[in-house]
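> example.struct
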């Protein structure tokens, strides 16, 4: 369907000033040591909140790229009301509009629906890449309902971004308590990608109010919604 994902991660646009080992090219065209944030989502539709947290992730976690993994279908969300994958990807590309934010249909091509499976497949496919799972505080609240959720935390480092009104609930929730000893101080966020999992950080970052639910509700109400900003 004309959609290509990050089969071969591109070299980083910049990698100065972090004091860490920079990625280096391998003979097969891949790169060793690329640090890539994975933002899984329905993107139904993509909005400025996704872009905001991705830019924050690039900067605060010292990442080379962020991949938006546009989910074919969130296993916990109803089919009803889910936009077509192609439409969600097209919109995501328009919203992302950044050379280091890569919109991908790789879950469709891998045939994975559950995050734990996606991460396992990505690690197999890109053994030299350092992945970090990115999510908003709302997803830290509900992650204990995901398949084999503790394995997600033991597979890759995780970065959680504040989101109103979920942050307090998330920090007192099951996942936060379960991995309390592995929570890393936000000052160590630039090194998160290099830490062995489980390791996770809650980033103090400016909030962004955008929500796909609100956009869908505005669309349904036929209002002149300001959808992305
Ligand atoms: N404004 C935001 N602030 C912080 N995180 C966000 C924001 N919007 C989305 N996210 C995070 O981005 C990821 C993908 O989100 P998703 O595509 O489900 O958007 P959403 O706005 O949460 O959608 P919906 O309202 O349909 O649940 C999730 O981890 C979510 O927590
Ligand atoms: O693996 C699971 O059981 C699971 C359950 C719910 C959601 N997820 C993933 O969580 C990510 C965020 O989903 P969403 O719909 O909240 O944007 C997306 O990558 C989903 O595939 C994963």
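> example.seq
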């Amino acid at each position: 369907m004309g959609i290509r994902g990050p089969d071969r991660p591109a070299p980083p646009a910049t990698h100065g000033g972090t004091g860490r080992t920079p990625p280096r090219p391998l003979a097969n065209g891949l790169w060793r040591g690329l640090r890539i944030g994975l933002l899984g989502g329905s993107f139904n539709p993509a909005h400025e909140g996704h872009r905001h947290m991705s830019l924050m992730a690039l900067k605060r976690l010292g990442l080379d790229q962020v991949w938006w993994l546009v989910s074919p279908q969130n296993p916990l969300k109803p089919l009803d009301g889910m936009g077509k994958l192609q439409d969600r990807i097209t919109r995501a590309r328009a919203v992302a509009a950044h050379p280091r934010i890569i919109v991908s249909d790789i879950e469709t091509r891998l045939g994975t629906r559950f995050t734990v499976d996606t991460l396992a497949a990505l690690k197999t496919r890109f053994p030299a890449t350092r992945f970090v799972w990115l999510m908003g505080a709302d997803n830290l609240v509900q992650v204990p309902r995901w398949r084999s959720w503790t394995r997600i935390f033991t597979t890759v480092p995780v970065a959680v971004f504040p989101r109103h009104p979920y942050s307090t609930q998330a920090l007192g929730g099951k996942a936060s308590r379960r991995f309390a000893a592995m929570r890393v101080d936000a000052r160590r966020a630039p090194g998160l990608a290099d830490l062995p999992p489980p390791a996770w950080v809650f980033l103090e970052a400016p909030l962004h109010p955008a929500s796909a639910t609100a956009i869908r509700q505005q669309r349904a109400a036929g209002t002149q919604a300001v959808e992305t900003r």
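> remarks
Residues 1-5 have pLDDT under 50 and may be disordered.
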